[in-house]
């Protein structure tokens, strides 16, 4: 496969039909839109140049309820645009004052803004230390949130962000009843990038995490401390509702040669536990995964980990070399001692085409599943993200309302009825990984489409 317009530091996401849509990049690729689909053995990229009105380098791409994409920000682009139909030209770049107002002199610290679609159809945009709700239909800012104090959170300070699991297992199907909460962790001080660039030292990364209920009428940030400092890390939603913090550094920022002291220790975050008991430190890596590293949740539940190149060229021999090795990280739920409790989805007997607010059935087996109750089993849906520079675009985990477990074969196989997400604003159309979770132990994922 061949890409001709440079996709370095671009953005992306999966369209409803499974097409990977890649936007922006560097130099001749900063206004390009690329498409690829794995529907044929000889498929290749389809590239369309000069689509955007402004360059989209270090921008964030997010899917909307209608299946279209919005692209926000980028270096020198204090605006957003909508990705047009393939081959057409974007009609307009909409100025977004937040991006200009949160640009730190020379450092920026607001690239790859954290962006999420929420149930009322508005877009949550977090830039550096401030956040707003943007109506993508009227192009108006409809809400301004409290400032998150303590430092800078976006590239190159490079903190992490994720939505906590969105839960529908409380009969909360109306727009006003659905709770959406964001967590923002790590980053660095506003001047950390400039100091590293000027060889004045690597400032320590931030160690705090902040949670805020976006949908609360009077939202406030609630602060807690991670076990270690982290910049350049990833925050991944795991299929059982936990969040994994992985990769990154403890000092410095993003960009070439700008970080030191890799953070080798993954951390599990359990959002439903009491404050002070949510973090669990896991076994450390032996490979530095800093600038230009990435990670991904696989259908098996493993975590793919790869990359890291803090140089402007390939360097095989260096303190932090160009890293070509890839790894599989096994979260605690993959402990072989838990296999007898692990559900196995029987795909040929399970529904894979879902419709909003319509019940569907999933059949599964468990080696030791006697006397299962509705409380023992949860069904989750995971939207696969485009992860780069510490942010997983379009990522979300949904916990569905599930009930009526029926024993198909005594003590061996079961089927459970679940209600599909109520509308596209909480689950944009497309492909998701569906998991059956038994008391915190997830099955392998099954691809479904809504």
Description:
Among the domains are: 1-95; 335-449, Immunoglobulin-like, CATH 2.60.40. A hairpin with a 4-residue loop joins β11 and β12. It has 450 residues and is mostly beta strands. It has helices spanning 97-101, 192-197; strands at 11-14, 20-23, 33-36, 46-48, 60-63, 69-72, 79-82, 94-95, 114-117, 123-127, 130-135, 140-144, 160-163, 166-167, 181-185, 208-213, 222-225, 234-237, 243-246, 249-252, 259-262, 267-269, 279-281, 293-297, 303-307, 327-329, 344-345, 359-365, 377-383, 386-388, 391-393, 396-399, 401-409, 413-419, 431-438, 441-442, 446-449. The chain has two helices and 37 strands. It is globular and about 70 Å long. Keywords: Signal. Pfam families: Glyoxal_oxid_N, GO-like_E_set.
Spatial separation of the terminal alpha carbons = 29 Å
CATH topology name of the domain at 335-449: Immunoglobulin-like
Which architecture name of the domain at 335-449 does CATH use? Answer: Sandwich
- Overall body shape: globular
**Cα Rg:** 21 Å
Counted by DSSP, the helix tally is 2
Low-confidence stretches: none
Structural class assignment:
mainly beta
- Percent in helix: under 10%
User: How would a crystallographer describe the biggest sheet?
Assistant: 6 strands, mixed
What is the level 1 CATH name of the domain at 335-449?
A: Mainly Beta
Rounded mean pLDDT score: 95
Strand content: 35-45%
Strands, total number: 37
Sequence-ordered SSE layout with sheet pairings:
Layout: E1 11-14, E2 20-23, E3 33-36, E4 46-48, E5 60-63, E6 69-72, E7 79-82, E8 94-95, H1 97-101, E9 114-117, E10 123-127, E11 130-135, E12 140-144, E13 160-163, E14 166-167, E15 181-185, H2 192-197, E16 208-213, E17 222-225, E18 234-237, E19 243-246, E20 249-252, E21 259-262, E22 267-269, E23 279-281, E24 293-297, E25 303-307, E26 327-329, E27 344-345, E28 359-365, E29 377-383, E30 386-388, E31 391-393, E32 396-399, E33 401-409, E34 413-419, E35 431-438, E36 441-442, E37 446-449
Parallel strand pairs: 14-32
Antiparallel strand pairs: 1-2, 2-3, 3-4, 5-6, 6-7, 7-8, 9-10, 10-11, 11-12, 13-15, 15-16, 16-17, 18-19, 19-22, 20-21, 22-23, 24-25, 25-26, 27-28, 28-34, 29-32, 29-35, 30-31, 33-34, 35-36, 35-37
Domain Glyoxal oxidase N-terminal: 2-333
Organism: Lupinus angustifolius
Domain Galactose oxidase-like Early set: 342-450
């Amino acid at each position: 496969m061949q890409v001709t317009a440079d996709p370095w530091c671009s953005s992306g996401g999966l369209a409803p039909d499974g097409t990977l849509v890649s936007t922006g990049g560097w130099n001749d690729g900063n206004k390009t839109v690329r498409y690829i689909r794995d529907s044929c053995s000889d498929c290749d990229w389809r590239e369309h140049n000069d689509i955007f009105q402004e360059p989209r380098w270090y921008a964030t791409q997010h899917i909307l309820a209608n299946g279209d994409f919005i692209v926000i920000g980028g270096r020198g682009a204090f605006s957003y645009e909508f990705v047009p139909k393939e081959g057409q030209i974007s009609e307009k770049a909409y100025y977004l004052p937040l991006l200009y107002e949160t640009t730190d002199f020379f450092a920026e610290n607001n690239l790859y803004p954290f962006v999420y679609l929420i149930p009322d159809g508005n877009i949550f945009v977090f830039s550096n230390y401030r956040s707003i709700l943007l109506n993508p239909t009227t192009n108006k800012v409809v809400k301004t949130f409290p400032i998150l104090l303590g430092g800078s959170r976006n590239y190159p300070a490079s903190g992490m962000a994720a939505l906590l699991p969105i839960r529908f297992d409380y009969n909360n199907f109306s727009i006003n009843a659905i709770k959406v909460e964001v967590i923002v962790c790590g980053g660095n001080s506003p001047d950390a990038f400039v100091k590293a660039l000027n060889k004045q030292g690597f400032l320590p990364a931030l160690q705090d995490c902040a949670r805020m209920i976006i949908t609360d009428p009077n939202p406030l940030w609630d602060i807690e401390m991670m076990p270690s400092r982290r910049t350049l890390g990833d925050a991944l939603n795991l299929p059982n509702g936990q969040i994994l913090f992985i990769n990154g550094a403890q000092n410095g920022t993003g960009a070439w040669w700008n970080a030191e002291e890799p953070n080798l220790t993954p951390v599990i975050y359990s959002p439903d536990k009491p404050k002070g008991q949510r973090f669990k430190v896991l076994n450390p890596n032996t490979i530095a995964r800093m600038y230009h590293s990435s990670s991904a949740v696989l259908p098996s539940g493993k975590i793919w980990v790869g990359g890291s190149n803090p140089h402007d060229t390939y360097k095989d021999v260096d303190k932090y070399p160009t890293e070509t090795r890839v790894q599989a990280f096994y979260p605690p739920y993959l402990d072989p001692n838990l296999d007898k409790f692990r559900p196995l989805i029987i795909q040929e007997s399970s529904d894979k085409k879902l419709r909003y607010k319509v019940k569907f059935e999933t059949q599964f087996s468990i080696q030791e599943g006697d006397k299962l109750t509705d409380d023992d089993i949860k069904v989750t849906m995971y939207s696969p993200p485009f992860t780069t520079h510490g942010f997983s675009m379009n990522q979300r985990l949904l916990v569905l309302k599930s009930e009526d477990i029926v024993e198909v074969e005594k003590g061996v196989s079961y089927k459970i009825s679940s209600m599909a997400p109520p509308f596209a604003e909480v689950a944009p159309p497309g492909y998701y990984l569906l998991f059956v979770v038994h008391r915190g132990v997830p099955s392998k994922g099954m691809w479904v489409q809504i």
